[in-house]
Amino acid sequence: MKGICLLLLVLVLGSCHQTQKARKPIETRTGSFIKESVKRNKKMVAKEENKIEALIKKDSTNNYITSNNGFWYFFNEEKDQDRLKTPQKGDLITFHYNISTLDGNTVIYSRGKLGKRQFKMDKEVVFSGLRLGLKLMSEGETATFLFPSNLAFGYYGDNQKIGRNMPIRSTITLNSIEKQTDSIQLKSEN
Fold first, then answer.
1. Which of 11, 19, 114, 190 has a C-alpha 20 to 30 A away from that of 5?
2. What are the extents of the domains in the chain?
């Protein structure tokens, strides 16, 4: 019996000292899919930007501003007030807007259909172009924005009327800004 136990002990200890070879992956990924995707997206963005720039050249009545965020806009109604009175994080803003095709010829969602909206700046989800555009406006101003698809509804669209990779035009009126303060109430210990 001692012989069997000793044999089992040797086998157990012997198997612990063996090193296992790592298995090789069945297939390797080179990152070429990501590289191709980046290449395709750059090409799509360039095509959209060219289309937007062509629309801007045709429009001699408006003075377009190029934003640092990759969209273009002009003010329909601009107030001569301090540009520092723009919405800040947490402010409750009320606004109206519409969405149309990039050339503005077809309304996708009318101002009436979308209705008056309230939004806590940077605390709620809206498409990124809308959020960035509102940050450039002051109370009482109306501006028209040309958003490439990556700042609008992107690859998926809105699953209703806005298709995938569709650049849009949106006219936004910022009605009011209510400054919000995050007050912290401390409980006194008695």
1. 19
2. 40-178
